[in-house]
């Protein structure tokens, strides 16, 4: 691991304190006492390094852990509210609905993990020379279809892997067929049906198309629970983000990876060679 800046190291330690004591009541004043900064300094530096408001982050973590316990179905709403430092079930339900859009009971009945934020962690990735705080979302997505151009690629860990050449080639083929299609762009990596050679099937396409053709295949992506990480930077550095996601974040999380369809989701007008471009990678998981 490379040397962290003093600020990043201090914020990383503060996050560890927050996560270890998430059931306790904690104010910005309490958290400032754990750092070397005043309340104003801590809030400014936390916002700068995480792009998050400190008080809002603590509340989101409390509500996300509470949502997990609701779905586990072993505790009453009142007990969960008190466990995470809310004064009453009423105040907890109000905060829960504001964050998730549903009251605790309705969220539990729906049964899907939506809007849950895993604890923020430090990405210290020597492959991409990246050091930043990163937050992973946990979401269940319904089944959907992707229409696109398919081909075979080497997996991430094949020596002299060809995916950095094959994947852009498949996207060029797709855009030649649909030059104006910029919405719903999705790359799908099939880790269920691995070839004897170790190669994977990859589909470059869109969720917004509705018809297959001689050039396009239709893949049915089933309902799945995902861990979702954002990648900011050049698209050729995505492999380093995925490597960190699988080898560092996943083993330390509360989740287990499963075979399925990994997704690359690109926003409209995505610029793959822009250092500020951001897309999301979806990793199939189970609790």
Overview of this protein structure:
- The chain has helices spanning about 5-20, 30-35, 40-50, 55-70, 75-85, 90-100, 105-110, 165-175, 240-250; strands at about 115, 120-125, 130-135, 135-140, 145-155, 185-190, 200-205, 215-220, 225-230, 255, 260-265, 280-285.
- The protein folds into two domains: about 5-110, Homeodomain-like (Arc Repressor Mutant, subunit A); about 140-285, Alpha-Beta Barrel (Multidrug-efflux Transporter 1 Regulator Bmrr, Chain A), CATH 3.20.80.
- Strands 1, 4, 5, 6, 7, 8, 9, 10, 11 and 12 form a ten-stranded antiparallel β-sheet that branches.
- It is of the alpha+beta class and about 290 residues long.
- It starts with 5 loop residues before the first helix and ends with a strand.
Describe how the helices and strands are arranged.
Blueprint: H1 6-20, H2 28-34, H3 39-50, H4 54-72, H5 77-83, H6 89-100, H7 104-110, E1 116-117, E2 121-125, E3 130-134, E4 137-141, E5 144-153, H8 163-177, E6 185-190, E7 200-206, E8 217-221, E9 224-232, H9 238-252, E10 256-257, E11 261-265, E12 278-286
Antiparallel strand pairs: 1-4, 2-3, 4-9, 5-7, 5-8, 6-7, 6-11, 9-12, 10-12, 11-12
Helix pairs in contact: 5-6
